[in-house]
Amino acid sequence: MKNSSGRRTNKELLLKGVKYLAYTVALMFTAPVVLYQAFKNQEHPWYLPVLIVGAILALAAIAMGFFSIKTVVDALFGKASRKEN
Q: What ranges in 8-46 are assigned the alpha helix state H?
């Protein structure tokens, strides 16, 4: 499939980006669940470690979201690979 600039879509990179999007979706559901469990059990001795893990998962979901979208955009509109030159 050719995009507007006449280059072909990098299918390998596109599949990698879709895989990263799947990881992002998993993190987007996991992080709020972990944070909810932490805030629900504030008197528990494991409150702070669970809260920290939830915060790390939330930040990872945001970072993976940007990274996966960047990968998909690079696959669709990125620079020509060295093989095409």
A: 11-40
Q: For 8, which DSSP code?
A: B
48: its two tokens: 């702070």
CA distances from 20 to 10, 26, 67, 72, 78 (A): 15, 10, 8, 9, 17
65 HSE (CA, 13 A, CB side): 11
Q: What pTM value is reported for the model?
A: 0.79
Burial 54-79 (b: 16+ CB within 10 A, else e): beebbebbeebbeebeebbeebbebe
Give residue-wise pLDDT tens across range 33-44: 999 999 999 999
